[in-house]
Amino acid sequence: MRFISKRICAAIIVLVCFCLPIHSQPNYPAEPEKAQLIYTDIEHFTEAFGMLEKGSDTLSMLKTYYFDRGSAGLKEYITRHSLTPEALKSAISKDPERYGRISEFLENIPSIKTEYTQTMKEFHKVVPDAMYPPTYLLVGANCGIAQASRAGQLVTITRILDDNLKLKKLMVHELAHFQQAKTMGPQKYGALYSEKDNMLGLCLREGGAEFITSLVLGEITQSKALAYYREHENELRSKFKKDLSEQATDFWLWESVNDPETPQLLGYVIGYEICKAYFTQAEDKSAALQQILVMESPLEFLDSSGYHK
């Protein structure tokens, strides 16, 4: 649970990079075939880990072979999470078997690359005007499993080594966030995460990314929370309406990961359900998807969705 807590806390700062002026937005390709999956950092880590197994100095090897040769994505991740050789060494010492299996993941990269390209093509069918920043596969210290950034999607792999579907879902979810920021404008989008009393906006922002993920892959990242929602839908609808009036986010958003007695991130699911309701009732699906991306007025969007009717 500590891992998840750190990961979700990072979501609060996930889009700080989008607060730069919109004219500084990188000009990434619009063709899904040109989307890059960058995994050099995994290669570098595997090399460093091999040195560690031979008894080399851990901090020196991690710094020289992993940190100093980091990609643009790894540098962004390091800045966001204050990742240090010391922190990574500590994480490795707590779970050496998992980190040791990263070399096995690397062996599967050819098939992962093939699936990645196909997934990007499927994404293009859903969002035809999408832009495709690179996706960076990284090794972290159990913090920040996936996030969008101006550098591209940043995905750490240590917790999803055997789950290619989860990997794809995270890639798509974060790429959807990038499209939201591109559509809405970087400054407006970044401001959502610091705006006061914006519980609905945050739920819809995450729910919108989940909805796009469902259109591309048929599933969302928070599948466990969705199953819980299906079992308790009526009471959760009522609770959400009440909590929304009080801007009580603890049960719904990132604070929820600190309470093992409650399901996590149900706000993502509620946002997904509202977006799905809006899309389903819309006659013009293309225009509806555009509204899900831009989401200029969360309250109007909620009313138009018919979710509470």
Descriptive report:
- With 309 residues, the chain is mainly α.
- It folds into two domains: 186 residues, no CATH class; 109 residues, no CATH class.
- The protein is 60% helix and 4% strand.
- The protein has 16 helices and four strands.
- The chain has a four-stranded mixed beta sheet, sandwiched between helices.
- A hairpin with a 5-residue loop joins strand 3 and strand 4.
- Helix 3 crosses helix 5, helix 9 packs across helix 11 and helix 9 packs across helix 15.
- The longest helix is centred in the middle third of the chain and has 21 residues.
- It is globular and about 65 Å long.
- It starts with a helix and ends with a helix.
- The N terminus is likely disordered.
Considering the chains and any ligands shown, give keywords for the structure.
309 residues; disordered N terminus; mainly alpha; 16 helices
Shape: globular
Radius of gyration based on Cα positions? 20 Å
Biggest β-sheet: count, sense, barrel? 4 strands, mixed
Low-confidence stretches: 1-23
Strand content: under 5%
Average per-residue pLDDT, rounded, comes to 88
Q: Estimate the helix proportion, in percent.
A: 55-70%
N-end to C-end Cα span: 36 Å
Topology as H/E string? HEHHHHHHHEEEHHHHHHHH
Structural class, by secondary structure, is mainly alpha
Number of domains: 2
Number of strand elements: 4
Q: Characterize the quaternary organization of these chains.
A: single chain
Strand order of the largest sheet: 1-2-4-3
DSSP summary: helix tally: 16
